[in-house]
């Protein structure tokens, strides 16, 4: 992934957009040595969002499976457990 300074990105914004959208290039905008943001093709963003949704769905499935392994607790039991964990 190529890096570009924030100053250069501001001055060459149109070029940066074209490089990402038409060239498929991923660029990281850097200020004072700190990576701030990435400019990526929209297709890459869609893929990242799909991967996040899949990870969320797996986490939900795992939580549901785990929930079925132990009996549910009452509100009073939860409050008591949380109270015990307080310093």
Descriptive report:
The chain has 87 residues and is of the alpha+beta class. The protein has helices spanning 6-11, 13-21, 42-67, 75-85, and strands at 2-5, 27-31, 34-39. A hairpin with a 2-residue loop joins strand 2 (27-31) and strand 3. The protein is elongated. The N and C termini lie far apart (46 Å). The mean pLDDT is 91.
Task: Provide tags for this entry.
single chain, 87 residues, 2 domains, alpha+beta, 60% helix, 3 strands, YefM-like fold, 4 helices
What best-fitting shape do the alpha-carbon axes yield?
elongated
Number of structural domains:
2
Q: Main sheet?
A: 3 strands, mixed
What is the terminal-to-terminal distance? 46 Å
Structural class: alpha+beta
Radius of gyration, whole Å: 23 Å
How are the strands of the biggest sheet laid out side by side?
A: 1-2-3
Total number of helical segments? 4
How many β-strand stretches?
3
Beta-strand portion reads: 15-25%
* Average pLDDT over all residues: 91
Topology of this structure?
Blueprint: E1 2-5, H1 6-11, H2 13-21, E2 27-31, E3 34-39, H3 42-67, H4 75-85
Parallel strand pairs: 1-2
Antiparallel strand pairs: 2-3
């Amino acid at each position: 992934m190529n890096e570009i300074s924030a100053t250069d990105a501001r001055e060459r914004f149109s070029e940066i957009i074209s490089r990402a959208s038409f060239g498929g290039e991923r660029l990281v905008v850097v200020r004072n040595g700190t990576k701030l943001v990435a400019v990526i093709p929209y297709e890459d963003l869609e893929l990242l969002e799909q991967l996040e949704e899949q990870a969320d769905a797996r986490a939900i499935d795992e939580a549901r499976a785990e929930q079925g392994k132990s009996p549910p607790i009452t509100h009073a039991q939860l409050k008591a457990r949380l109270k015990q964990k307080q310093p």
